[in-house]
Hints:
The chain is of the alpha/beta class. The protein is 38% helix and 17% strand. It has a 6-stranded mixed beta sheet with strand order 1-3-2-4-13-5. It has a 5-stranded mixed beta sheet with strand order 9-8-10-7-11. Strands 12-6-14 form a 3-stranded antiparallel beta sheet, with no helix packed on it.
Amino acid sequence: xxxxxxxxxxxxxxxxxxxxxxxxxxxxxxxxxxxxxxxxxxxxxxxxxxxxxxxxxxxxxxxxxxxxxxxxxxxxxxxxxxxxxxxxxxxxxxxxxxxxxxxxxxxxxxxxxxxxxxxxxxxxxxxxxxxxxxxxxxxxxxxxxxxxxxxxxxxxxxxxxxxxxxxxxxxxxxxxxxxxxxxxxxxxxxxxxxxxxxxxxxxxxxxxxxxxxxxxxxxxxxxxxxxxxxxxxxxxxxxxxxxxxxxxxxxxxxxxxxxxxxxxxxxxxxxxxxxxxxxxxxxxxxxxxxxxxxxxxxxxxxxxxxxxxxxxxxxxxxxxxxxxxxxxxxxxxxxxxxxxxxxxxxxxxxxxxxxxxxxxxx
Length: 362
């Protein structure tokens, strides 16, 4: 699998400079303009192909369709050279803005709203997973904490969180922050009452087990490892429905709409082949997922079942982005006053084309 680690230095200054350039003119007009082609005009042909560079913080299970499309050679067979670059989320966004990456797989956060407002071409193209409902206390992805701090998994008590250290994937600027903030509010607390830091993947679990933090966001499939520690309990997670984990496309993808639709067609084929239903019961899929995610087959079999839609429908994504934007505005995280309409954050042409365009014949 072509996953590369990238070290980024002094990237913030470059991003600020780029943001200033992008802001010249009317940012609202720039947000509203795409390639100018409708969904009917961007169907790929047998000649459609090219390279796509996507930033990814870690090979998490929520990215299973992308990981499998890469590791099984499905992208290659469709004429696409997809390169997954291991880059921290905070570093990959400036790279997308500069055109050094074509897209980013991540959860929407403060930085995304701000760069879109500045006029940078960045569109929410498709979601990855849809959260299923789970009974309280089951080992699922989300916030985990020490039992001696919050009590039982069935009825966690967050009243003692003031001054505690919490690890999040985005440092308190995205969906995980809203989940935590809403829960703290019920105890008369807010995010300012806890000490936030950023850890992703195995680093978050290690920090929690070593008590470097008191609570941490544990991503799939690491909840299985967390459950082995009798001192840890699941506390908070996603509500059923949209989770915010998505592909965010920059100019390098938006300017090649037929290539982006071809990418989605491959993702659909892979999702339908490997990830519909309870994929944990299919040995071949389990083996592929374990290798792609860098974990064991037992962990995949025991992990919480994720739900992947092969049509990548954008149902309620607009509501999700509106609510997250409102939450971040309340926290004064955003650099603008007037809310950005969800229609200017999302480009639904590609999912529409996925439903209508026939797969090219080789």
